[in-house]
């Protein structure tokens, strides 16, 4: 990718927007962890404004990307790849906002321990995505991307195992039918957010392979 970077070195605005999108996704994951900690502490209901603002900022980044694509003839990566990655990053904070909205109206006791391991894996996955996106600007060797993608795939695989364990606890635990359905959906929403990180990482891998 080095020759590609030299030719289009002035097109850093696209990399800036992609990196900003990845960072906002990571911010939303950090906010989710802090939200769960606040719930576990038993204090007042945490404010949801931070999640709304993060998702709105991600949306502005995405619209900014679409605007740049519409008025720029030459781009440092193929337009379809830029659009696909931008959309994949946008979907991460959007998913987390929905998780928090559901948690905020859940009338039962939130099983913080169960969500903690899921959130740790989500954080690991999102950190890998941020690293991978930032490597695009540098025209990195595929080895660095593969190492980061291995971490991402590990997080996704572990999230599947954790999900299975959580479902087992639900099915064999003393839960009311309504509570079981709600918690299962919440667990699945977190696991699906890890999948969204994996999808973003897969797009980065495809881009790097294309230009390596």
UniProtKB/TrEMBL annotation:
<protein>
    <recommendedName>
        <fullName>Phosphate transport regulator</fullName>
    </recommendedName>
</protein>
<dbReference type="Pfam" id="PF01865">
    <property type="entry name" value="PhoU_div"/>
</dbReference>
<dbReference type="InterPro" id="IPR018445">
    <property type="entry name" value="Put_Phosphate_transp_reg"/>
</dbReference>
<dbReference type="InterPro" id="IPR052912">
    <property type="entry name" value="UPF0111_domain"/>
</dbReference>
<comment type="similarity">
    <text>Belongs to the UPF0111 family.</text>
</comment>
<dbReference type="InterPro" id="IPR038078">
    <property type="entry name" value="PhoU-like_sf"/>
</dbReference>
């Amino acid at each position: 990718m080095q020759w590609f970077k030299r030719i289009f070195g002035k097109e850093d605005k696209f990399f800036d927007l992609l990196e900003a999108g990845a960072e906002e996704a990571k911010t939303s994951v950090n906010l989710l962890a802090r939200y769960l900690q606040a719930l576990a502490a038993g204090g007042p209901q945490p404010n949801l404004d931070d999640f709304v603002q993060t998702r709105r900022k991600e949306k502005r980044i995405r619209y900014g990307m679409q605007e740049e694509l519409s008025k720029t003839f030459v781009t440092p990566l193929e337009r379809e790849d830029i659009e696909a990655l931008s959309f994949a990053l946008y979907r991460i904070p959007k998913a987390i906002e929905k998780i928090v909205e559901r948690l905020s109206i859940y009338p039962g006791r939130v099983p913080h321990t169960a969500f903690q391991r899921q959130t740790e894996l989500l954080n690991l996955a999102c950190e890998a995505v941020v690293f991978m996106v930032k490597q695009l600007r540098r025209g990195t060797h595929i080895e660095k991307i593969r190492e980061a993608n291995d971490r991402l795939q590990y997080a996704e695989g572990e999230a599947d195992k954790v999900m299975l364990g959580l479902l087992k606890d639900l099915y064999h635990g003393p839960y009311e039918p309504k509570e079981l359905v709600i918690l299962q959906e919440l667990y699945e929403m977190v696991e699906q957010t890890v999948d969204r990180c994996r999808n973003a990482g897969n797009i980065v891998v495809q881009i790097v392979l294309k230009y390596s």
